[in-house]
Structure formats: structure tokens, C-alpha cells
Fold these 4 entries.
Entry 1:
Amino acid sequence: MSSPRDPSPSDPPTASLLFDVFALNQAVGRLLGRVMAEGPLSPADYALYSAIFELEAASPTALAERLGMPLTTLVDRLREVEARGHAHRVPNPVDRRSHLVALTAAGQASHAAAARLFDVASRAVIDGLPGSEQASQAAIRRIRDAIDGALAVSPRPSGGRVR
């Protein structure tokens, strides 16, 4: 009678692509949590600040789309960033009824300090890739596009979660 064996890290069972993406997300969180532990921003805050920094001044909707998070969650997170004095609202030049969010000087300084730590983790991952960084990013974009497409056509379940 054979006994079940634990797969080695180099030979994990593959449940599905979505399972693998979920596990990847967890691993990224552990890596960034470890490398950025002593920094000024959490990995989640760094992602938000980076999206604001990349877009220079962005609407909450654009930020939510960039980060792949619900708008209501993003708005709550922005309130925290604004309360720290790391972001401020500016009038939207295209639509005066709305606003854009930009980093303050203090927010930019925190982002820059956190970026130095993030870059350590990023470089270690990039150095371990079998192919180019661009090829890996393209594959991730294709997966993200497929997930976004599935979200657009998937009906919302009517029942609650099993706990």
C-alpha cells in the first residue's frame, strides 16, 4: 500500500491556474512583507502610493481599476492616506464635479523610501526568472485580462459563502 507523499516545492501538484495565481499572490505577500517590514509603508500601501505616483494625479476610479480593487475599498484606503497627510485632492480639470488624488511631498518621500525596499525584492525575483521580465509581465497581463473578462461575464452567486 503506498502512502501519500508530500510534493517537493519543485514538484507541486497543480490544482488549477486560479489556484496557482492565488498561491502566487500569497508568496508575493510573504516576500514583500518580509523585505518591507521595517519600511515606512506596508506592501499594500506601497501599491496604492505607486499607482498614484505612476498616474501623477488620478481619479479614485482609475486607481481602483489599476489596482484591481473595488472602488469602495479604494476610497476607504484613500481616506487613510489623506489622514496621514500623504495625499490630497485636486480638482479634475476635465470634470469639475470630481477630483483627482495626488501624493503630497510627505507621501512622495514615504513612497521613495519604500521603493528602495521594494526594489530589493523585485530584483531578487527578476534575477530568478528563467526568461525576461517583459515576457513574464506579458503572461501576467494575459492572465489579468482573462480574469477581468471572466468577471465581466460571470453572474453573481445568489447564495452566501460556506463557512
Entry 2:
Amino acid sequence: MLSNLFFLCAVTGGTFLVCQFVLMIAGIGIHDFMGADSPEAEVPLSDHAGTASEVTHQHLSTHHGGWLFTMFSIRTVSAAITFFGLAGMAAAASELSPLPQLGIAIAAGGLALVCVYRLVLLVRCSGWDQTVKIQRIVGQSATVYLPIPAAGAGAGKVFVQAQNRQMEYPATTAANRVLLAGEQVIVIDFKGITLLVAPDPSLKSKT
């Protein structure tokens, strides 16, 4: 039973990783593949002076949902699933009992998730002068990726076009209803890297 689960995870996660790599090499935007860039290190440079590690720490401390929220992206989760499966298969091949197999797989998946997350932060910090300035996004249209709770009750996520890239940002709303996945919204403000969005009034006028 566990062997089948490990094999499925290794194949599924590995497929996602390969597809992301191929799309990146081909220069194709990966928004449609649910892999848009996350703004882990993308806050205005003028607002955060200091070394890359200091800026990263400052940024994470201002995130509305905390560092754990930013850690999960299609890249990190794909890596975690892949290594969960591979480590589990290796443990099963060593004829360990089910509990140690599961423990090894979970540890490997968690380690892969953290390592890929830190690698993304490192790459983003190394290219700091090319990062997206979040204030330029205010006034732009965005697409809801993860539903946004009503009246600031929590954060969802949106995709927004910025500097010829599809970017993924956490977002909240003051609207009195939930903003559903796929809905078009307008960015009206931001706090840290969390956007404040509202339903697109132009769409309402057309209905």
C-alpha cells in the first residue's frame, strides 16, 4: 500500500518539476500551469536597506500570514512530493517496516520543501535590482487564485501581471463577500507584500 503511494508521489511530483523546468527553458509563462512567481523577496529596495539576509528577514516578518504561508508554492510542494515519494521508495526497498518508511519519506519531503524555498529566496535576493516594485501594481487588474475571505477575515492569493511577468501575491479584501477563484479584481493598496483588492467595478457594470 505504502509502496504504491510512494511511487505515485514520485511520478506526480517529478512530472510537475520537469514540466516547470521545460516551460522555464522555453520562456513560456507558467501562470496557466499554476506556477507563477511568488514575491518572497519582492518588496521595494528603497524601503529595505541592508544585506540580502537582513532584507529577507525583514520581509518575512511583515508578511500578513507569516513565513509558513509564503513557503508553499507549486515549486516547493512539487519538490516535497517528489522527494517524499523517492525517499519512501528507497526505504521500502530496504524492507523497513511501514512506520519508519513513512517517517523517512516525510522527513525527506519536508527537507526538500525548505531547501527549495530557501533556494528561491537566495536567487531572488541575488537579483534584487530587477525585482518587482509592489507599488507599481496598485491600480492594476488581478485574477484571484485562492479564494479571498470577506471583510479582511483572512488572505487568499492573486495573480497579477508585473514587469512582463505573472506574479503571485497574498491578498485580502474589504468586500463583504468572498472573492472566488478566477474572479477579476483591482489592486487598491498593499501592506508589506499583501495586496488589498476589490471586485472589478467594470465587470459589475457590464452585468
Entry 3:
Amino acid sequence: MAPASRAPRRVAALPSWLVSQVALQAQRLVGEAGVRRHEFSVLAALAEDGPASQAELGRRVWMDRSDLHGVLNGLEHDGLVARVRDKQDRRRNVVRLSPAGAQRLRELEARAAAAQDALLAPLSEDEQRELRRLLTRLVEAHRGGG
């Protein structure tokens, strides 16, 4: 009888199962590093693509409007982002990254990088590059449900 902690061979051989197991470990390591995905995603999107309406920002980070609202409330409370009225359309807010938000993003990037290093430590540098290449290829091929 197989130990309870091991998946049956038929399951453990499935690429989808393997990817999910690695994803669970990645989430654990990133979480332990103090990186919250939504916070990191919003700060990174603002840093990379500039200020945005809340609707546009939600599309950038693939986040539901109500979830984004909660994340932005926390980030704004911490002084990491500012919501200001759009000069072109006073009915909407534009979200901007604050200097404190840029600093927080640098801290999160360092923590996330350390978590990635821990996750990929069993692989050589060449294997790590190949894994990133293959995962990127899969993500791009299946983006948008295609």
C-alpha cells in the first residue's frame, strides 16, 4: 500500500498534476517570503505601465473589480498607491504608484527572487532557463483559453 502522502503513479505521471504540485510549493515559498501576489501584481503593473484607471488596472492584473478594490484600499492605506480623480473623466479614479510603493515593490522583488531561487535550487542554471522557456511557451499557447 502506498503512503498517504504519495499520489498514485497514474496521477503523479500527469504533467498537469506535476505543474500543480510545483505551483503549490512556489506559492508556499513566496508566501513565506512575505509576498502577497495581488499586492505585488498591482505595484508591478503600475511601475511597468504607469498610472491607470481602476478598470484598466484590473484588466492589466486579471483581477475582479471587487477584489481589486480591496487590494487598493490596503495599498492606499499603507501609502503605497494614490487614487486621484481623472482629469479627463471626473467620474473615475486614476491609480498612481507612490514613492513608498516603488520602494515596497523593490523589497517584494527581492523577496520574490529569493523564493524563486529556493524553488529552482535543485536545477542547474541551464535547466532553470529551459524550464522558464517551456513554461512561458505553455502559458502563451493557452492564454485566453486557446
Entry 4:
Amino acid sequence: MSTTETLNVAAGTWDIDPVHSEVSFAARHMMVSKVRGRFTSFSGEIVTAPNFLDSTVTATIDLTSVTTNNDQRDEHIRSSDFLHVADFPTMTYRSTGLHVEGSGDYVLEGELTLHGVTRSVPLELEVTGSGPDAYGGTRSGFSATGSINRSDFGINISLPLDGGGVVVSEKIQIQLDIQGVLRAS
């Protein structure tokens, strides 16, 4: 939802519902296709302000919960070649600002800490809806997309291919589909 549409999101604190949310990523593999994965354990909160542009987000992702539907690949991603979960078991995101692009779309500015390194990572944000749930509460949906360069976070594995290219791309695409549950006041 762009700013040209009416936001129907109540001000308040929203807990991320991990059962109805997804934190996923994609990386180009062997320069020909994408491997997609997701994290199954994460938590966080969204604080929506009366002026939506003053809203904030914090999230923590358990990196040991990575899954790409291939156990061998998942163990390799958890290893010191990639995420090194023995030393860096979590990834965190903390927003630092929210603004509107010229097109009327929201951009969430924030700091991502991964592999012991913190970098600024902007995310394109969409408010996908809000309303009552079947349990007497209120839920809102948020989608965000962005990308990182893995070597910016010290993940420097180099697996070159014969004839050029690499086994795993530097660019990692990020997709977040989040459902928040408004805390009772």
C-alpha cells in the first residue's frame, strides 16, 4: 500500500506472529537458477505511531533455523563457510527511519547485524492490510523486500566455476511477509 492509499493501521505495538509470517531469501546458484530458503524461528515487534513515518521495527532471526529443503545444503549454510551459527546464532534488524520515495512507496531504513557485522539495509515496505481476527484481536500485514551483498557481512566463500561465475551469488534477495498481532492495551 503506497502513501496515496489510506492506511488503516492502528497505532500501537504489534508482535510478529511467526506462524503466519515468513522470512525468506534467494541466492543465484551456479549462475543459472535461484535457491530459495527461509528461517523458521524469529521474533520481533512493530510499533506503529500515529504518524506512520515515526513507526519502528525490531526483529531477531534464529539462524540455526535456516531451511532450503535440503539437509546437506542447510548444514553447509550453517557452517563457518556461510552463517557460522556456532559463533553467530542470530541475525537482528533494527529500523532507523521510515520515509516515502518519490513514487509514493515506503522505504524502511535499518541496520542489519549478520555474522558479527552491522550494515545499513533499506527495505521496500508495503502495508498489505489490517483488520479484526477471529479471536477478538487485530492483525496487520506488512511485506518488505531488499537485498544484501553477502561479502559486505564477511561471508566471503569463493566457489568459482570453470568458465567463469560462482556457485553462490554475492547478492542475496530478502523477502519478508509479516503478520503482526496488536497487543492489548
